[in-house]
Design brief:
The protein is mainly beta and about 200 residues long. About 10% of the residues lie in helices and about 45% in strands. The chain is globular, with a radius of gyration of 18 Å.
């Protein structure tokens, strides 16, 4: 984690905002060695201008959660992934909000219509099925603990999924979870829509 002195941090944030206004279709990459922020034009390579989340997996691939699917970038080319079709739900919502990897090299993809698992080796997608996950909007994030437990911030509350994926529990029911964070002691911090932390 890069720690910046407060005035310098504000300068970098202002620079990113200014660059973001002048370039509406791309990503800004900060180089921690040279302190330079550069623009990466991706407008012809991704299916949506709306990028909700960026995640780097263990192999170094960058994954972009967009409002029209999931995009993998290997440093040279882009691979667009549509999340497939569910016989029970029809077309799976491709409005992707979050993506994170567990310790089994599976990507957990949070959408506006539930949770999808993506096997990175086969490319196969699986709609995660459970009554608590039906039509859930994954908007607050996804966390994987050291024990491979998965926590999901959603419009229905804070959801817990056991490492074997057999147990799903709503740990904080009824709250609209907007943000979750795992600290170094494995405590989970939860930001809600109207009940604070």
């Amino acid at each position: 984690m890069i720690k910046l002195k407060l005035p310098y941090a504000y300068l970098v944030m202002a620079l990113i905002c200014i660059i973001g206004i002048s370039h509406s279709e791309g990503i800004h990459a900060a180089n921690k060695t040279s302190d330079l922020v550069s623009f990466v034009d991706i407008s012809d390579n991704i299916p949506s201008k709306e990028i909700q989340n960026i995640y780097q997996d263990r192999e170094g691939y960058m994954w972009f959660a967009t409002y029209n699917g999931l995009v993998r970038y290997d440093g040279f080319s882009y691979l667009n992934t549509k999340l497939g079709y569910s016989a029970e739900k029809g077309a799976i919502n491709n409005m992707v909000n979050y993506v994170v990897e567990d310790f089994n090299s599976t990507l957990w993809v949070g959408t506006n219509a539930g949770l999808v698992l993506l096997d990175k080796v086969s490319g196969k997608t699986t709609d995660m099925k459970h009554p608590l996950l039906d039509n859930v909007i994954v908007e607050g994030g996804i966390i994987v603990t050291k024990n491979n437990e998965v926590w999901i911030g959603s419009n229905k509350g804070l959801l817990y999924i056991s490492p074997d994926r057999k147990k799903v529990v709503n740990a904080v029911a009824g709250d609209d979870i907007k943000s979750i964070c795992l600290d170094r002691q494995e405590n989970i911090w939860v930001g809600t829509w109207n009940k604070e932390l």
